[in-house]
Amino acid sequence: MSVILNPYLNFRDTAREAMEFYKTVFGGELTLNTFGELMGGDQAGSVDPGDVDKIMHGQLDGDNGVTLMGSDVPKHMDPGGDIVNATSISLSGDDDAVLRGYWEKLSDGGEVQQPLVTAPWGDSFGMCADRYGVNWMVNISGSGPA
């Protein structure tokens, strides 16, 4: 059982470039998936055509235990302005009980943006802002239906 705490950065149309840069800084293995790749198939109509090639999820598993995640902010979530200045803290792992406990405490008194439910990639995933406005994402590996 494990729990991992790592930053998840938001970009405006520069996630690919930024994540590739971070790979040069931290080394390791970089995985980039677009909205089109992850939301394709029977959900293709739910992706704005302008977002298809943007990064929905990038993960750098760098050297020395560094993990950094990032994505482009899709048009429907764009707060406006020139710079996306929002950060989310991502909790992930396979310890269902621990992660659900964190989710319950973080979302209590806050605002749930995405309930903790089964995501298209098969894990349980949820997003919330806690009572202090800090953005959190919880991903429970392969846990199935919430």
Automatic annotation (TrEMBL):
This is PhnB protein. PANTHER family: PROTEIN YJDN, PROTEIN YJDN-RELATED. InterPro entries: Glyas_Bleomycin-R_OHBP_Dase, Glyas_Fos-R_dOase_dom, PhnB-like. Residues 11-138 form the Glyoxalase/fosfomycin resistance/dioxygenase domain. It holds the Pfam family Glyoxalase. It comes from Microterricola gilva. It comes from the Bacteria.
